[in-house]
Specification:
Layout (H helix, E strand, L loop, with lengths): L1 H8 L7 E4 L12 H10 L3 E4 L8 H18 L16 H7 L15
Parallel strand pairs: 1-2
GO molecular function, one term: GDP binding
Keywords: GTP-binding, Nucleotide-binding
Pfam families: Ras
């Protein structure tokens, strides 16, 4: 299974989403929603059906995936600072903002507002 291979090669806490595409072509369906949903649940995958034609659930797939990653970071399951976690902040300034020592509000002299 792809999810098993991905979990063996990446972090155990990897977030994998199964997207059933071409949702708009219901008459040509080869896998039922129930079959795909069951497969996703059995393999601990997120699951959404999407349609690039109508745009249905396309953005939602990214939002749900990002939300799940953020939840794992906040719970401590994933650490973006750990090499090999598969996650990194895109901008050095964001790393500084996320740093615990910067969590305190700046005093009036440091404030740039």
């Amino acid at each position: 299974l792809i999810s098993l291979d991905a979990r063996m090669l990446a972090s155990q806490n990897i977030v994998i989403i199964l997207c059933g595409n071409k949702k708009d072509l219901d008459a040509d369906r080869e896998v039922t929603f129930l079959e795909a949903s069951r497969f996703a649940q059995e393999n601990e995958l997120m699951f959404l059906e999407t349609s690039a034609l109508t745009g249905e659930n396309v953005e939602e797939a990214f939002v749900q995936c990002a939300r799940k990653i953020l939840n794992k970071i906040e719970s401590g399951e994933l650490d973006p600072e750990r090499m090999g976690s598969g996650i990194q902040y895109g901008d050095a300034a964001l790393r500084q903002l996320r740093s615990p020592r910067r969590a305190q509000a700046p005093n009036a002299q440091e404030c740039g507002c």
